[in-house]
Design a protein that fits this description.
Layout lengths: L3 E6 L7 H10 L7 E6 L25 H11 L2 E5 L9 H13 L7 H5 L3 E8 L8 H14 L2 E9 L10 H9 L11 H4 L4
Parallel strand pairs: 1-2, 1-3, 3-4, 4-5
Bound molecules: flavin mononucleotide.
Length: 198
Amino acid sequence: MSRRFLFVLGSARAEGNTELLARRAAEQLPDDVGQRWIDLSGQPLPDFEDLRHDSDHVRPPSDTPLGLLLDATLEATDIVIASPVYWYSVSAQTKRYLDHWSGWLRIPGLDFKARMAGRTLWGVAALAHEELSVADPYAGTLRYSAAYMGMRFGGVLLGNGSKPGDVLNDTGALTRAKTFFAQDAPLARFPYETADAA
Ligand SMILES: Cc1cc2nc3c(=O)[nH]c(=O)nc-3n(C[C@H](O)[C@H](O)[C@H](O)COP(=O)(O)O)c2cc1C
């Protein structure tokens, strides 16, 4: 299967550092790799309503933002969460998109989990803090979500910046962007699955 990357932009502003960094990384993808970019602020998703234990979730029509996101997610071999670090995790827009995955898991006949298994989740994020380790909760959110879904995880490309454009001064991030998507993306595992027996 030729690869198709879906970039899900989750910033609350246009053309911010996260998108700039994601575009730098995407420039390195070979020409035969598809790219689709969806800005969640242009496709506002409804609040997630938890019907899992009351009734089946129904497939959202393709002409709605939610249906568009579902179709785009199913079409992608690689999903790139391009969200800034907000409160040490993903943005609310991004979290809402991920919450809807829980509904999609319950759409009869969709087989969302089985279809997502083996695909790859990646993260790209800008943050104002200079010590990148404060983004560990963000990376954990994506890694564990990938593990739950049986997906591969390519890690998170982090760049420093506060105001738009700052990340272009983070030479380390720009260097990492050049090879980010060429990295191995092993199947994600929860820590308890890989911990050595004591
Ligand atoms: C609501 C909000 C929460 C934020 N939380 C964090 C944070 O927890 N850690 C941090 O280092 N920066 C934080 N920031 C700063 C942003 O991550 C930073 O400005 C980043 O460059 C924004 O990305 P963008 O330009 O792609 O929108 C926060 C900014 C906002 C607006």
